[in-house]
Amino acid sequence: MALVWLPLDDRTIDGVVALAGSSWTRAELDDAWVAAGWPLPEGRSLAEEVYGAAEYRFDVDDHRWVSVAMRFDPDEVIGFFLAFATYLDEHDPEDEDVRELVSAGGAPWSADALATRAEFDARHDEAVARLTARLGEPHVVGTHDDEWHHAAWRVGDRLVVLAQGENFDRYGMADDACLWVVRHEPDQPLPTGDALYAFLCGDATPA
In this structure, what DSSP letter does residue 40 have? Predict the structure, then answer.
């Protein structure tokens, strides 16, 4: 078992909350990114990188990166997310995947090659406490896929969500804890349980 993590800080939370209040259209995407306090990619237009070059992951400082979530046909940005903890359920600390995960983060990320799922859950709970202090009590708290946890806050026509889920870069062999901000119509019911995770992964049906 292995865990790497970097607790959410005020700057990261401020950025996501700023995105929740911004427009994500192609014409306004650069302004939304700058309003979040994040640098444009090497001075280039973020919108051109996303819509023109099909790039979706961007460094926002020396040790964090944010991914852009898209829906296609028509192309549109539907959200943003960043991982703050990754857990690998492998019991051998000398396993190649464990060693790769532990060495991949680097300072200021922390790493524990013997961490348990309970410690991964604790990192999620700490993030929920920080978001609760900023946004109030979450509108939804629950679990999905048996062992993953989530909490969601409605911010206008957006959802700010903390959710554990699959780390797609590692072909499903690891779990991530992520902070999301996603578009969600205020007249629609908030998805719960497995439906919330499906919604984060691009299912247009919120119920």
Answer: -
The answer to whether residue 77 sits within a structural domain is yes
Max CA distance (Å), the chain: 50
At 127-147, the pLDDT tens digits run 999 999 999 999 999 999 989
67 in a structural domain: yes
Q: Is residue 130 a part of any domain in this protein?
A: yes
- Three-state secondary structure call for residue 43: helix
User: Does residue 205 lie within any of the structural domains?
Assistant: no
Residue holding tokens 């020396």? 62
Parent domain of 158: 2-200
**57-59 and 140-144 beta bridge pairing:** unpaired
- State the CB neighbour count (10 A cutoff) for residue 98: 20
How far is residue 1's CA from residue 165's CA, in Å, rounded to a whole number?
A: 16
How many whole angstroms separate alpha carbon 58 and alpha carbon 105?
16
Using only the alpha carbons of the chain, give its radius of gyration.
17
**What pTM did the predictor assign?**
0.93
